[in-house]
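INTERNAL AUDIT FORM
Audit reference: QA-55
Scope: verify that the stored structure record matches its stored sequence.
Auditor: D.O.
Record contents follow.
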Amino acid sequence: DEPRLEQAFAALGVGHPPRARGAVSNSDNNTGGAPQPQGATHHGGGTRGGGRGRNDAGVVVLAEVGARRGSAVAAEEPAAAAAAAAAAVPQADSEACLPLGQAVAACWTDDQTKQLAGMASLRKLLALETTPPIREVLNTSVLPRILQLLGKSNPNIQFEAAWALTNICSGTTEDTEIVVSAGAVPLLITMVDASEVGEQCMWCLSNIAGDCTKFRDCSIRAGLLEILTSLASRGFTGVRSSVSAERPASSVCSNTVHALCNICRGKPAPCIKPDVSLFVTAVSRVGTEESMVDLLWAIAYLSETLVDLVIHSATTLSFVIKHLSHPNMKLLVPALRTIGNIVTGTKLQTQVVLDAGCLPLMSNLLSSQKRAIRREVCWAVSNIVADESDQIQRVIDAGLVPKLQEIMCYDEDTISKEACWALTNAITSGRPEQVRAIGCGCVPGLCQHLATDNVQLLQSALDALATLATIPELATELYSCGWDRLCVLRHSSKTEAVRARCGRLCDLLEQSRG
């Protein structure tokens, strides 16, 4: 089986782990799932004849992003964050870090100086890079006090409290559930705009939403999407910090879009319809490359169930398609995922992305050095040509057919199979002149796949060969390279449908030879 999710993404060399600078756990919100049999429900809102959904057996699943981030440094500019990270290892600051018991006691005092020292010590302990004592801190019952201090007016104490919560919520789902059950989410959302630690609160909310679908939906119900939309509508400005009067827009953008990505991911899909074009416009102005990656993945997640939300916005669709030619795989992969999701939809939905100019870019990607990219493109094309002759013609005109033929004949097996699906779908759905144009050069590769153990692909290949057998010169070629294998399958296949197809095809070939 093809490696799923993280393994597949790692094979691309573009891994996107949680942006962790402290404790990180594996999120249970993995959208990959087990491979489903052929004919699984399509993503994208439609079923297209011979098209296949993303989780069909043998179809590659490019990996996803999101999840949670701990922080040994607070939300700040990248250069400052890097410098602070080097100095933030608790062992190097041991004199300023109280033991756990003393830190908790200091938090419960009424002395703000002691409160600050206690909260800072908890934050440093929670930022340990190996085995941070998250559960030990929670077992002290100090969480209610952390939330109380987060709501107090002293911004330095608030900052430490928000930072500590951020690291707690980079732990296990059980750790995060304790924070959510204590009522942290509504408080954090309120403080994004109304406090001087808004950006750190946003980081914590992102961690919570990225933990699992339960907490994602809890965050959405509490109004997280509305806060994210408000920030995007004003260009990610106006968020204050205890460090400076106003946080840089690029920094606020990073945390905001990461939170958006987290509330868009997961199965079942969230019940939201964000104004994606608003985020695209705002991120395009001030966002870093990392923010672009998160936004593209948010769009990819949404396109699994809300295709129209993407294709009905020219701004959004243009943003996605332009990244199909980006040299950075981190940006290209989610853009390609989105296009793949869209073309599993209806003919009209597919037509929109074709009209937007995706095919020439996809043709280029068929020559990618990344095997997962080639395979994903072949899979997408197999859905584009599933049952619409006009769209088949667009694929022919864009020059994809010779590349698909080459991949079917010479690429490794898993990719070759996807190219075979694309070509067989086109042959069985095309007009006579299209069948002739596609079929020339296809027969040897299709005959290779007569040895496949994938019964559905075998049947599709036999149907395509039966169509090509009506063309005299191709029938002669098929007899030469496929007759022996067809005779074997006709008598030895365990599948009745395969035996029947082989019988009909053998009869056609005998008739063509007079």
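Auditor finding: record pair retrieved intact. Residues 264 and 272 are 8 Å apart (CA to CA).
Action required: none
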